[in-house]
Amino acid sequence: MIMKGYPQYLWFVVLALLLVCTGCSNEGETEDDNNQHVKVEGFYVKGLENVNACVEFDVEVDAAGTYTLHVMGYNYSKGTATCSLYVNGQKQSQLGFQEQSNWSEKVVQVSLAAGINQIAFQRDAGDNGQFYLDYIEID
């Protein structure tokens, strides 16, 4: 697997490169920790509030199977903020983050093929609110 065990700030160096290379019609952007409303060390992704905005990760696993995906997100809106989770171009689920004053982790099971898989968080027409993304982990 890749992306596990690296310092948190390196995620967003990779993420920034991914944002430049994605085929999304609207891409997220990184923000540093000087933001007054969000407490985070390093960077996070924002800009996922427009329909079709997305951020994509390439994740490599040795064997096909079901893996646990950990998503650290923040709801910066009233009510529940949602985004759609895609694996290899297929919608898997809609993640919802409750209104709160801190980051929270969502844990979902995803089926991955052996080799490189694409995991995307996308704002679909049925999603709502403002969702920030800090990091993901696969195990």
UniProtKB/TrEMBL annotation:
GO terms for molecular function: carbohydrate binding. Signal peptide: none annotated. Transmembrane segments: none annotated. PROSITE patterns: CBM6. InterPro entries: CBM6, Galactose-bd-like_sf. Pfam families: CBM_35. Residues 16-139 form the CBM6 domain. This is CBM6 domain-containing protein.
